[in-house]
């Protein structure tokens, strides 16, 4: 199984603000949907609550140690990242979609990082964990300028772990 981290972050590593995203990038949302469709998603409780529903066409696992936490219908609760990997055994790909604590645990186990790099520094209260970028190869990059639908420029970047 390929373990992929998929994240959008700004130049300062910001990934969230007030329980949501600090930007609106329709092309990034479209890429997220197309990339993750048919695969397993793993997220933390706060990310699950911010989405508020199961995403169609994908199996969703939410990490929560609280057995009383009830995720939305169609989302399965698992206690930790190891249990998520076990629940997803046999899947072709697993996408880790946030938040910060889940990313911190998942990056060391990831095979690839799919990063939407927002070319700005925006206010936010959640940051992506520190990454040793020397451990990763940048293998694809696609730049998108700001336009009438996107207030800021961004790049899609794909990193593979160096062996």
Summarize the structure in short.
The chain has 163 residues and is α/β, with parallel strands linked by helices. It has 4 helices and 10 strands. It has one domain (2-161): Dihydrofolate Reductase, subunit A (3-Layer(aba) Sandwich).
Describe this structure in words.
By secondary structure, the chain is an alpha/beta fold. It has a single domain (2-161), classed as 3-Layer(aba) Sandwich (Dihydrofolate Reductase, subunit A), CATH 3.40.430. Helix content is 20%, strand content 35%. It has four helices and ten strands, in the order E-E-H-E-H-E-E-H-E-H-E-E-E-E. The strands form two sheets. The protein has an eight-stranded mixed beta sheet with strand order 5-4-3-6-1-7-10-9, with helices on both faces.
Residues in helices, as a percent range: 10-25%
How would you describe the shape?
globular
What is the CATH superfamily label?
A: Dihydrofolate Reductase, subunit A
Total of helices: 4
So, CATH architecture? 3-Layer(aba) Sandwich
Topology, number of strands = 10
Number of domains: 1
Instruction: Kindly report the spatial arrangement of strands forming the biggest sheet.
Output: 5-4-3-6-1-7-10-9
User: Main beta sheet: strand number and arrangement?
Assistant: 8 strands, mixed
**CATH first level: which class?**
Alpha Beta
Distance between the termini: 17 Å
């Amino acid at each position: 199984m390929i373990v992929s981290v998929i994240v959008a972050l700004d130049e300062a590593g910001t990934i969230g603000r007030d329980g949501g995203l600090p930007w609106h990038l329709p092309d990034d949302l479209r890429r997220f949907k197309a990339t993750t469709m048919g695969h397993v998603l793993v997220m933390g409780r706060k990310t699950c609550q911010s989405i508020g529903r199961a995403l169609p066409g994908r199996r969703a696992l939410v990490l929560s140690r609280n057995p009383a936490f009830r995720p939305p219908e169609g989302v399965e609760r698992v206690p930790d990242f190891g249990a998520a990997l076990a629940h997803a055994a046999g899947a072709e790909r697993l996408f880790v979609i946030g938040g910060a604590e889940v990313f911190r645990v998942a990056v060391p186990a990831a095979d690839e990082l799919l990063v939407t790099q927002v070319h700005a520094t925006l206010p936010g209260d959640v940051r992506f964990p520190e990454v040793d970028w020397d451990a990763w190869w940048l293998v694809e990059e696609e730049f998108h300028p700001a336009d009438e639908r996107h207030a800021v420029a961004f790049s899609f970047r794909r990193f593979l772990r160096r062996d």
